[in-house]
Amino acid sequence: RTVYLNGEFIAEQDAKVSVFDRGFLFADAVYEVSAVLNGRLLDNAAHLARLSRSCQALNLRLPCQPEDIEALQNRLIAENSLQEGAIYLQISRGNSGDRDFDFPGESVEPTFLMFTQARPLIDHPKSKTGIRMVSVEDIRWQRRDIKTVGLLAPCLAKEYAHRHDADDALLVENGLITEASSSNAWIVDAEGTLVTRPLSTHILHGITRQALLALAKQHDIRLEERPFTLEEAMNAREVFISSATTFIWPVISLNGKVIGGGVPGPVTGKLREIYVAEAMRATAG
Ligand code: PLP
């Protein structure tokens, strides 16, 4: 694989970052993951806008203009002949030459890296079978709207899920579901209304979430942005998660309780179909 590091397109084994990089020592870094379909970036302007917001919130300098970042992303996609998968991008506050909590001066350049990951988006088996989930307490920090690389809590949540015979975890705070460990959470409630938690600092403002809300409105699917409890999710008609790299994955059980008879539900299926059609259209040649 060819990766990108600080202005260079190089073989992955040649890409080296200092042990004093603040991304490594303090998780002082932000990231983005954009889907690639038909060799083209999906919804990338929204991802780059969120990247700018993450950087602003942390007073972190963007290494270059968003349009220049997109050109670099496209070159890396071409270098790796990536048709379907994702491109990961990370910007850290750079290497200040020692371990020091204080921010370094302006002269320290951010560390900017990218790599590609080939994976099926359209025909992923889990999009058809659905996944089993468990709930865990949301122990993350209070600014989940900033997409930082401080991801130990979601790693622990996924590890807990795997140890409990599940694929992934939903995160719960004060009895309410915030989101999933690396995706936004949705239910179809007892009245058949599509529900997802409103934007706040408690959740990541998912780009896929935003696109799905717009598509649901266009297709007259009844929807409500409101918090919902774990109990409501366990008794929901349907549950699903959304992210750039899953699009939509149905949830067929939660804490061992079967959801929707153990098969992906109709609203979930319809929304995924609408989203996939739109993604194919947006990335067609
Ligand atoms: N929530 C969390 C905690 C995430 O890590 C992610 C994506 O990785 C999402 C939601 C979904 O965001 P997006 O749709 O922009 O990929």
TrEMBL record:
<comment type="similarity">
    <text>Belongs to the class-IV pyridoxal-phosphate-dependent aminotransferase family.</text>
</comment>
<comment type="pathway">
    <text>Amino-acid biosynthesis; L-isoleucine biosynthesis; L-isoleucine from 2-oxobutanoate: step 4/4.</text>
</comment>
<dbReference type="InterPro" id="IPR050571">
    <property type="entry name" value="Class-IV_PLP-Dep_Aminotrnsfr"/>
</dbReference>
<keyword id="KW-0032">Aminotransferase</keyword>
<dbReference type="InterPro" id="IPR001544">
    <property type="entry name" value="Aminotrans_IV"/>
</dbReference>
<protein>
    <recommendedName>
        <fullName>branched-chain-amino-acid transaminase</fullName>
        <ecNumber>2.6.1.42</ecNumber>
    </recommendedName>
</protein>
<comment type="function">
    <text>Acts on leucine, isoleucine and valine.</text>
</comment>
<dbReference type="InterPro" id="IPR043132">
    <property type="entry name" value="BCAT-like_C"/>
</dbReference>
<dbReference type="InterPro" id="IPR043131">
    <property type="entry name" value="BCAT-like_N"/>
</dbReference>
<keyword id="KW-0808">Transferase</keyword>
<dbReference type="Pfam" id="PF01063">
    <property type="entry name" value="Aminotran_4"/>
</dbReference>
<dbReference type="GO" id="GO:0047810">
    <property type="term" value="F:D-alanine-2-oxoglutarate aminotransferase activity"/>
</dbReference>
<comment type="pathway">
    <text>Amino-acid biosynthesis; L-valine biosynthesis; L-valine from pyruvate: step 4/4.</text>
</comment>
<dbReference type="InterPro" id="IPR036038">
    <property type="entry name" value="Aminotransferase-like"/>
</dbReference>
